[in-house]
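Cast an eye over this sequence plus tokens and explain the fold to me:
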Amino acid sequence: MINIDAHNHVRGKSIYLDDIQELQGTLYALPFDATVAHAKIKSLNLEAALHRKGIVTILTAKDILGENQIGGILPDEPLFADGEVHFRGQVIALIIGTSEHHCRQAAKLIEVVYEELPVITDAREAQKQDKLIIPPRSFKLGNTSEAWSQCDHIFEGRTDVNGQEHLYIETQGAYARPKEDGSIIISSSTQGPTAVQRMVARVLGIPMHKVEIDTVRLGGGFGGKEDQATPWAVMVALASQLLHKPVKMAMHRMDDMRMTGKRHPYSADFKIGLTKDFKIVAYEVTHYQNAGAAADLSPAVMERTLFHSTNAYFIPNVIAKAYSCKTNLPPNTAFRGFGGPQGKFVIEAAIVKAAESLGVAPAVIQKANLVVDGDELSYGQILQQVEARNAWESCMEKYDYEAQKKRVATFNASNSRYKKGLAIQPICFGISFTNTMMNHARALVHIYHDGSVVVSTGAVEMGQGVNTKMLQIVTETFGIPNHRVRIESTNTLRVANTSPTAASAGADLNGKALQMACVALSDRLKAVAQKEYSDATIDLKEEKVFANGVPTDISCNDLVMKAFTQRVALSENSHYSTPTIHYDKTKEKGHPFAYHVYGTAIHEVTVDCLRGTYDFDSVNIVHDFGKSMNIDIDNGQIEGGLVQGIGWMTLEEIIYNNQGRLVSNALSTYKVPDIYSVPKEINIIHLDTQGHELAIKKSKAVGEPPLMYGIGAYFAIRDAVKAFNPNVEFAVNAPYTPEKVLMDLYKKS
């Protein structure tokens, strides 16, 4: 089944936030933000701006009806700065006018006097000053102190990995309209409608049942519209509530980039110990997470970094420690992988460091340490249904890696200007929200008299094809064609108390809930049919009732009408919660993931050693999809995730100066992969497995895992650089931009 949104997308008929028809009298909102990274606000003069043509009002912290607080995990983030600003881009006031143009002209007239305070932008510096979001956390397995004596080789090092701009095509925005009795409806470009609902209620000082959040689809999210979609929706809601007018905000790209948080930059120290046969005996890592000025989702992201610090390898003795460091940057947030990629990058760097020092290919160490069934991870989960070695061996065999190695070696021996590099990237990625309470979902299904069906879930469609997978569940259960089913927008009044569409759990959680609802309704309909075919096995397919595999004269539409006349309920509201998962943070042990996804990728790159530029010749992947529900959508997720991961590792460089000003603040200064950056070949083979019972229809989650394949791009480039300049030790700092590659190519020992 093709993506059901495809037709409307290509014809420009899909409805996004800015396409919603505006009501007469709609006003427009523009945030006014701080121009310094850390300061006390000595004075704020709004008079000239208020008298500017087209300006209705300007809101500040004093206008808030309830609580000036939008922090989700921790209450440490005000909606409007009140007395002090903690990062450049922090909103001080909200300008409301009859046009955005008028608002921008008024913003130039606002006068702010600051008393500037010290600015911290570096995570390690913040840790030294004990400026932490939460206390540090550690995962432990075995005894590293004793294990070092068992190691024949010990290596230490440091890595630094930069952030990443979400760069969703649709920027942040929201549109609020007042309803009667003090209620309000907000169209929000958010991955988490319930989170927006909760914060709107908190700031407006009203109960949640008076706040309706409606989301049709997003023009991309990637984690950047999980908690970070909240402030803009709350701002327009506040303005709408105070003015009793519809209020809209659709942010400009540069404003969005300046004011929003990114993927967390990390710095890390590692120590790794191996035996003579390349078994990893011990591993210690300390992560320094640059959280920015408020918690946002940083504690959860840090936790997931710890969960994925050993990637696809079994290491019997581990200490993984992490600090969430408070700096004067916009609060960083979730980004596809949610901290996992940062953790995986360090262990891969440690393995490459060991391999280069020992004169062996990293693949030798990687292969020797892949996880198997029964292995225990540092957080206590015992792995089951492990496909790591299966994926590795299949990848080596299907793509003839040994022949590829020889071809690359021959090329390098005969070329002086161009060098090729190879890297293998295995992945093992856990699927679930690591906060156990978030692993549940609801679905509401109505069957109408004519047999058509409408479905509401908590899943937000943002280009990943979740609506299509939901549609498949319905059509396959009821045996009806696509056009008989409508997937409704995500709405907090239809489906309440939802978790965000994130952590690769959207299809699993919402799909399982929807499947339960559809099966319950299907069973009721079959029971009605059973009255006429008492001894037969009833099936619903091809829009007919089948008895013992033979089509009857009863159509599905007829059956629905029969059920209705017999007063059979044709609506179902179901609830699903993931079984088996649990985690005890006091012990840092448990079973936080429903299952893991595995895979292996082989990267081949060619570096131009004169210019420092590079081309990705091929990325060959074997991936553990389970029993894929939709091969086309899943392959698209692999390709998109891979390229996004390559971008993070090679081109996308977030740069703040030492005063917390974003320098890479536009697409002219922030480079993202274009068509010429995409590997010339991307080959994907589906690993033959039985899938997992906790995955919807045994079709494993596919949103986040493929991004981690992109890590291999970094080490493939490094391999090519080493072929040109073999006797020099290079720092492990991502992204590996062409400028950095050129410097390493000609670095002297």
